[in-house]
Amino acid sequence: MTGAVLLALLPVVILTALGLALRRCRFLAESFWPQAERLGYFVLLPSLFFHSLATARVEAVPVGALALTLILSTLVVASLAVAVRPLIRVDGPAFTSVFQGSIRFNNYVGVTLAAGLFGAQGIALAAICNAAIVPTVNTLCVLVFARHGAARLTPRGIARQLATNPLIVSSLAGLAFRLLGWGLPPGLEPALRTLGAASLPIGLLCVGAALAFEGARTWIRPVLSASVMKFLAMPAATVLVALGLGLHGPALTTALLFQVLPTASSAYILARQLGGDAPLMAGITAVQTVLALVAMPLVLIGLSAFVPMG
């Protein structure tokens, strides 16, 4: 397990560092990165999710137990984050960033690691993970923004945010195709597969380019609070729920893997759009990305000694 985790992390570290270096040395125009993020978020990553779910061989995968493990553990940590807000002592917009940092995850890193650990089976497991927690996380975050963000959302605005989220739409569409037994047309299937494959390297480059450490030292308490939730509370809740549901093997490993992923850079975009504390969100994302390099292998390797995960 130790070698597999470290080998799976290696390309993530290399591509993320390359993205950071490319932006710092201004090898590409500054305008490239927002457009690359937009391409990944609206086209490439939805293609990966849709294709993975529409073509996934899920007969031997405990879909129900895996999805329920992820949803329940996310709800537990989300409730905990709301409960401890008075102890963090932050205003409403800052709390939205702490909340996102507690439950939001980086899809690109998760899919890359799952594929590195388990190959095609890992991609299928990752697609199921995304289908379960992308709608859950986005629904919870939008609700928190509606309550605590500077830009108050109406019920119609909340519904619009959820109904137009490309990750939710593509995940549900892929599941529908799979459940209905519809096959992808011969020309469309390889096109979607290629677009999905492109999402991983481009997404990781954008993750590195989006890292901003300048303000991370300013918000020690909220950054620390979000990171404790993400790297301690979330994996603990995931393992407890998984054991209760009898989840084990690669499915458990993938579930735990996704629940200890650092916050995605898309959280910064959402904070800007919905009235959150965007600079704080950038600091949380940067710190968690660095911490994850140590936290993820420690969590997976440590728990593998007590839980049948491989």
TrEMBL record:
Subcellular location: Cell membrane
GO biological process per UniProt: transmembrane transport
Signal peptide: none
Membrane topology, from the record: Multi-pass membrane protein
One Pfam family in the UniProt entry: Mem_trans
GO cellular component: plasma membrane
InterPro entries on file: Mem_transp_PIN-like, Na+/solute_symporter_sf
Swiss-Prot/TrEMBL keywords: Cell membrane, Membrane, Transmembrane, Transmembrane helix, Transport
Chain ranges passing through the membrane: 39-56, 63-84, 123-146, 167-185, 191-211, 223-245, 251-271, 283-307
Recorded family membership: Belongs to the auxin efflux carrier (TC 2.A.69) family.
Name of this protein: Transporter
Organism the protein comes from: Methylobacterium frigidaeris
